[in-house]
Amino acid sequence: MSEVTYTDSEMMIAVAARMLKGARTVFVGVGLPNVACNLARYTVAPDLELIYESGVYGARPERLPLSIGDPTLVSGATSVISMTDLFGLYLQRGLVEIALLGGAQIDRYGNLNSTVIGDYANPKTRLPGSGGALEIATNAQRVFMIMRLKRRAFVDKLDFLTSPGHLTGGDSRARLGLPGGGPEIVITDKAVLNFDNPEREMQLNALYPSVTAEDIQAEVGWPLRLAKRIEEITAPTSEELHLIRDEVDPHAMYR
Amino acid sequence: MNKDQKADKLVSMREAIAAHVGDGCSLAIEGFTGFISMAAGHEIIRQKRRDLTLIRMTPDLIYDQMIAAGLAKKLIFSYMGNPGVGSLYCIRRAVEKSIPCPLELEEYSHYGLVGRYVAGASRAPFFPLRSYVGSDMLAANALIKLIDDPYGTGKIAVVPPLNPDVAILHAQRADRQGNTQLWGLLGMQKEVAFAAKHVIIVVEEIVDEAVIRADPNRTLIPGLIVDAVVHEPYGAHPSYVQGYYDRDNETYLAWDKLSQDHGAVLAWLDEWVYGLENHSAYVRKLGQSYFDRLKPEPLLAPSVDYGRYR
Predict the structure, then answer these.
(1) Of A52, A60, A67, which to mutate for an interface test with B (greatest number of B Cβ within 10 Å)?
(2) Peptide bond just before B164 cis, omega within 30 deg
(3) Angstrom distance (rounded) from CA B24 to CA A153
(4) Is residue B295 part of a domain?
(5) Are residues B192 and B79 in the same domain?
(6) A174 touches chain B (CB under 8 A)
(7) Active site residue A53
(8) Against a cut of 0.95, is the pTM above it?
(9) Residue B152: what pLDDT?
(10) Is the domain of B210 the same as that of B151?
(11) Cβ-defined contact of B187 to A167 (cutoff 8 Å)
(12) B-chain residues within 8 Å CB-CB of A129?
C-alpha cells in the first residue's frame, strides 16, 4: 500500500469520527466537530442523530454548514424546535449521549476557558464566551474535547473557568451534583489523552504515527501523566480521506 | 396593555424606530443566525440613538456595527463571536480599548439567557437551570444566583426575568395586525416577543389574515402583543430567511477582515448605512442579481388537513 499523505486536521477528524462508533445522538459544534460527526454517519455510526444548539434534532445537511445555524440544517431534519426546548428538553433532560467541545484553554481536569485571556474585568483578549458550551459540559452524558495541542492552550491554570470538566479532580464533579459524566477524552493533532484514573487527571493515552511522549509533554503546561500502556493510533485510511475530501468537506472549509 | 388586535399596524421602518426605540432604552433584535433584522439595526444607526442597552444571545454583525457606531452603553449576551468565522472585532475594540466608547457587559451562557427570556415572557419571578455550578460565570455576573432547591437538598442556579423595552423580530410573513408566522430555526423569537414591552415585527411578505388562519400552528407571535409591522424584503441580509434567501457567508467572511480596522468600519457605515436613506436603497445598491444568487431551490412541505368542524 502506498504512503498516504494527510493534514493534522484530517487526522483529528478521522480520529474523532472513530470515537463516535455506535453512538445514537451527538451534540455538534462548529468547525472540525461538524466534519467529524458528518463523517461518522458514513463510517462507524450510521444511526447517529446530529443535534445542533440552534434547535435542530436529526439534521441531514446537504452541504457542510459554515455556522451551526445554517439553513441546510433545517431542511430535511427530524425536528426543528426553539432554543428553550433544545436546551431544556434535549440537553438538560439528558438525551445528548456525546458532545464535542473545544476552548481556548484547557486544564488537567478538562475544565475549559472560552471567555477571556487575562483578567475578566480588563481582558487582554476577549473571547466569544460560553454560548452553549457551559450547559453542554454540564449535561451531556459524555464529553469529547477536540483541541490542537499547544502550550498556550494546555495550561496549568485557566484564566477563567467557563465550562466545568472534572473541576478539582476525583469525584468533585459528582459531589456538586453535575448531571453529565464530564470529559472522557481529548482529541488533539498529535495524540489522544483521557481521564481514566481515580483523580480524573488528563493522561497521555495514545500517540499518532511518528510522535513521541516528549513531543506531547513539550506542549502541555504541567507534568503530564502517562497511561499504563500507550497505544498507537493509525493514520487515516484512504477511505476516510476520500469521504472527508469528496463527500463531507468538498470545499475544504475545515482542512 | 393589550394592543388593538384589529388595527392596521403596517408602518415604514423609519416610523417604527422613531416611535418605539428611544435613547437609553433596552433593545433585543433577536434571531439565531437567521431572521436577524439588519434593516432595523441600520435604521437605528441612521437615527443616531444613544446609550442603548443591546440584548442578543449572539450579537452577530448587526451589534458589531451598532457598537462601532457608538450607540450602545451596555451589551447583554451569551456568545460574542462571528458565527463560524471568528471574532467580532468592533465589540472587542469597545471591551478591550474603549473604542469608540466603553461597553458594559452582562454575560450568560445560552441557556441562562434563554431562561431570562422565558421568565420574562411569562412574567415569572425567575428561571431555574442546572447550569453554572462549578463555573466562574457565577462570580462574573451577580444576577446569576445559586439557591437551595426548595424541593431537594442541592443547589440550583436561577436567573431573573428579562423584559426588553423593545423587541425587533424578523419573520417570513405577517398580516397587517401583526399575526406572525415563522418557520425554520425558531431561536427565541416567540419568547422574546412575549417578554418585551413593545414589539416590532419585520417581514418578507404581508399576507391576508386568511393566510394566517389557514395554518394556525405556524403562528408564532399573535398581533395581540405587536405594536408595529414593517414590510422589508431582504431585511435580514446578510443573515437569512428560511426558504427565501440563504445566509450570505461571503459577507460574514469579508466582515472578519474589514472589521479589524475601526476606520474601515466607519467608512463602511458611511457608504452602506448613513449614505442610504433606507433598506430599499441598500437592496437596490446590491442589485437584484445579487439576491437572486442567494435564492434556494424550493423544498415544499406538504399541506396538512386541519379538518372543518361545524
Answers:
(1) A67
(2) no
(3) 40
(4) no
(5) yes
(6) no
(7) yes
(8) yes
(9) 87
(10) no
(11) no
(12) 77-81, 107, 109
pLDDT value at position B2? Answer: 63
Residue A51: pLDDT band (50, 70, 90) is very high
Q: Say if residue B44 is in the same domain as residue B98.
A: yes
Pair (B154, B194) in one structural domain = no
Domain holding B122, by residue range, is 110-159
Of B96, B185, B191, the CB nearest to A55: B185
- Please list, residue by residue across A171-187, b when 16 or more beta carbons sit within 10 angstroms of its beta carbon and e when fewer do: ebbeeeebbbebbbbbb
What is the tally of structural domains in chain B? 2
Q: Which residue among the candidates A49, A53, A201, A240 is catalytic per the annotation? A: A53
Residue window 171-210, chain B: list those with CB within 8 Å of chain A: 183-188, 190-191
Instruction: Give the torsion sign (CA, B66, B71, B76, B81).
Output: positive
Query: Count of CB contacts below 8 A, A vs B?
Result: 172
The pLDDT-based confidence of A2 (bands split at 50, 70, 90) is low
The span from the CA of B100 to the CA of B102, in Å, is 7
CB spacing of A55 vs B114 below 8 angstroms: no
Contact A120 B85 (CB under 8 A): no
pLDDT in tens, B49-90: 999 999 999 999 999 999 999 999 999 999 999 988 999 999
Q: Are residues B134 and B216 in the same domain?
A: no
- Inter-chain residue contact A30 with B83, CB threshold 8 Å: yes
The pLDDT of residue A255: 72
Q: Does B92 touch chain A (CB under 8 A)?
A: yes
| A108 in reach of chain B (CB within 8 A) | no
Residues of B in contact with A132 (CB under 8 A): 79, 109-111
Mean pLDDT of A181-204: 98
CATH code, domain carrying B239? 3.40.1080.10
Between CA B239 and CA B34 the distance in angstroms is 5
Q: Is the Cβ pair B130, A92 closer than 8 Å?
A: yes
> In chain B, whose CA is at the least distance from the CA of A121?
B140
Mean of the pLDDT values across residues B245-253? 97
Q: Is position B73 within any domain?
A: yes
Domain identity same for B185 and B223:
yes
Of B78, B247, B299, the CB nearest to A70: B247
Structural domains of chain A in order of their starting residue, each with its CATH number: 8-248 (3.40.1080.10)
Check whether residue B142 and residue B262 sit in a common domain: no
| Cβ(B17)–Cβ(B47) below 8 Å | yes
pLDDT at A34: 87
Long-range contacts at B256-260 (CB < 8 A, ≥ 24 apart): B256/B82, B256/B85, B256/B86, B256/B87, B256/B89, B259/B64, B259/B68, B259/B88, B259/B89, B259/B90, B260/B89
Q: How far is the C-alpha of B6 from the C-alpha of B18, rounded, in Å?
A: 22
| B13-52: pLDDT as tens digits | 999 999 999 999 999 999 999 999 999 999 999 999 999 9
DSSP string, A212-226: -HHHHHTT-SS--EE
pLDDT in tens, B162-214: 999 999 999 999 999 999 999 999 999 999 999 999 999 999 999 999 999 99
User: Cβ contact (<8 Å) for A134 and B240?
Assistant: no
B149 and B254 fall within a common domain: no
Interface test with A, best of B35, B131, B256 (most A CBs within 10 A): B131
Residue A175 predicted with pLDDT over 60: yes
How do A123-126 and A116-118 pair as beta strands?
antiparallel
